[in-house]
Write a structure and sequence with these properties.
Layout (H helix, E strand, L loop, with lengths): L1 H10 L1 H8 L4 H9 L10 H8 L2
């Protein structure tokens, strides 16, 4: 069950961001665990919110 949930999170990562207008908490944690630096800048959150839907 857990493996399926992890696979679905990876599969739906980009659609989740596009539809919701923000990065889900699981995505932020996953990126941090892998050592990725997204390079967030001031205003990025509002740009995502404006662009969804």
């Amino acid at each position: 069950m857990m493996e399926a949930q992890i696979a679905n999170r990876l599969r739906f990562f980009f659609p989740d961001v596009q539809v919701r207008g923000y990065y889900p908490s699981y995505a932020k944690k996953m990126l941090a665990r892998k050592g990725y630096d997204v390079g967030w800048q001031e205003g990025d959150d509002s740009i995502l919110q404006q662009g969804h839907g």
